[in-house]
Amino acid sequence: MAFYEENPNSITGADIVVGIPSYNEVESVARTVEQIDKGLSEYFPDLKSVIINLDNHSSDGTREAFFSAPGKFPRIYLSTAPGVRGKGHNIRNFFEKAAQLSPRALAVVEADIKNISPFWIRNLVGPILKGAGYVCPLYIRHKYEATLTSLIIYPLLRSLYGRRVRQANVGDYAFSPQLLDTYLKPPVWNQGVDDFGIDIWMTNIALASRVPVVQAFMGARKVHRMMDPMAQFHVLFKEVVGAIFELMQVYHDYWVQVKWSKPTALSGTDIHETETPLPVDINISRLHERFTQGLEQYQGTLERVFGPMVITKIQEISSMDLQHFSFPAQTWATILFDAAAAFSRMSADEKSSLLDALLPLYLGRVLSFVKKTERMSVQQAEEYIENECMIFEENKPYIIKVWT
Predict the structure, then answer these.
(1) How far apart, in whole angstroms, are the C-alpha atoms of residue 83 and residue 91?
(2) One-letter-per-residue 3-state SS of 325-345
(3) What is the pLDDT of residues 197-255, one digit of tens each?
(4) Is it the case that residue 28 has pLDDT exceeding 60?
(5) Which residues contact residue 181 at a Cβ distance below 8 angstroms, ignoring those fewer than 6 apart?
(6) Which of 180, 148, 158 is nearest to 19 (CA)?
(7) How far apart are CA 218 and CA 303, in angstroms?
(8) How far apart are CA 54 and CA 19, in angstroms?
(9) Which residues pair with 164 in a beta bridge?
């Protein structure tokens, strides 16, 4: 349970429960609460709702800003113990509190979204009230935004679990209370899930639980407060990819039976105003440098994990100059499948080393993607990604073979 709880209205039940994870978000949490409250008021006025701040013992006044924000719906404040951080800890507190409230729908919205609108709450919560089990938002993104999703998460989860969920690792989502038992008694919960791995962990389990999944179109890109995207990327990469690999072990008996993917239902398509995604600058020289340096640094690990054919292909790719650089999707799918199979047989330290070694390969794959799509529109780049996902699906028998 949470280290500290404040429930001034003594709320014991609610139809809709919305959680806001936070750590030192005094500048943004009030606006987020206000927009959530407006969404609940406008679209679900007849239902009992509660907004919960899921905090990491913030010291900047987040709690006070949360309670003082305008709005009519009651609020609850939950906090981890001092020094305990990580979104996963917050979400765990959310599961435990929500289970006491017997809700019909649950949603999580990040605290620092600058452009959240009331209709986002409609698009997340509405499908759950109509019978969906899990809702992932679908934001408009630039082709080079969230390449971890485009090049690893989307093709891998799609080929494994047979559902086309384009943005499975976003920080906002909604889900049915029928998933609470699984989330509260999870098959896997580790340090990575305590932090960056929690979002993909939740979506992955929803896909493997075979609940109805919906994508909610949001009509805009999500705008966060300014942060350095590379500041913690190494940790994020390891925790997200590690969570997928760990859950592959848990749900092996399910995904080996899945042959092809199916489209996922899309809601919120009545939105007429959309935004053009902002450009994303990519330093291809720096990517190439980090790719080649990483291969040299982790050469021993790569040779222990991958067979001679894959190592030969990696060497061929690394020998290309920047102008002619290419990293084929077929090779990339083989690498990810081999890595996942090896991961399932490794100790904790070996798993960590494998994920370290996989990161420069991913950066090489990003470089190849940028070079292939630099003259493409966002829509054309999406079609390119869809075609590459089919390569993963066509090679699904390979992962089944090497896993065994």
Answers:
(1) 16
(2) CCCCHHHHHHHHHHHHHHHCC
(3) 999 999 999 999 999 999 999 987 788 765 544 558 999 999 999 999 999 999 999 99
(4) yes
(5) none
(6) 180
(7) 44
(8) 6
(9) 263
* Residue 379: burial class (beta carbons within 10 Å; 0-12, 13-18, 19+): exposed
pLDDT of 222 reads 84
SS3 257: coil
Q: How far is it, in rounded angstroms, from Cα 267 to Cα 216?
A: 5
pLDDT on residue 404: 82
Cα 331 from Cα 335, distance rounded (Å) = 6
The topology (CATH level 3) of 4-267 is: Spore Coat Polysaccharide Biosynthesis Protein SpsA; Chain A (3.90.550)
2 pLDDT tier (thresholds 50, 70, 90): confident
In contact, 179 and 95? CB cutoff 8 Å: no
Two tokens, residue 299: 């050469």
Identify the residue whose tokens are 């690893």.
Answer: 152
Q: Structure pTM?
A: 0.95
Encoded tokens for 179? 């998933």
* Domain edges within the chain: 4-267, 284-403
